[in-house]
Protein: EF-hand calcium binding domain 11
Amino acid sequence: MVFKACDEDHKGYLSREDFKIAVVMLFGYKPSKIEVDSVMSSINPNTSGILLEGFLNIVRKKKEAQRYRNEVRHIFTAFDTYYRGFLTLEDFKKAFRQVAPKLPERTVLEVFREVDRDSDGHVSFRDFEYALNYGQKEA
Structure:
């Protein structure tokens, strides 16, 4: 298990550096200072690091977020039939005709305009992801 491998001194917790190594091992990237600061500030101040239970919760949340992002990417790619990396209004119309054929074209246009945040006539993956996440995260 990654926790044990990163807790080389058998302290029973992961230090800041141990946590960084664990993220690299599990997710293949070095976490940013902001990400590590966020995790470290959320742990119990009476402990010197991240306990196993807290580590498992962090990993579970990261895995769920990764899985969700992959699903969003899959949906975007299904809409982006020409593999351009963005969606046009025509792409939207075509997709909505398949999933909601009775939806008025005016509504599709309104949705497109809402999602195209910079009004450039293209919906990037970032715009698309933002639209799908809108209202999903509660404070």
In short: Strands lie at 13-14, 50-51, 86-87, 123-124.
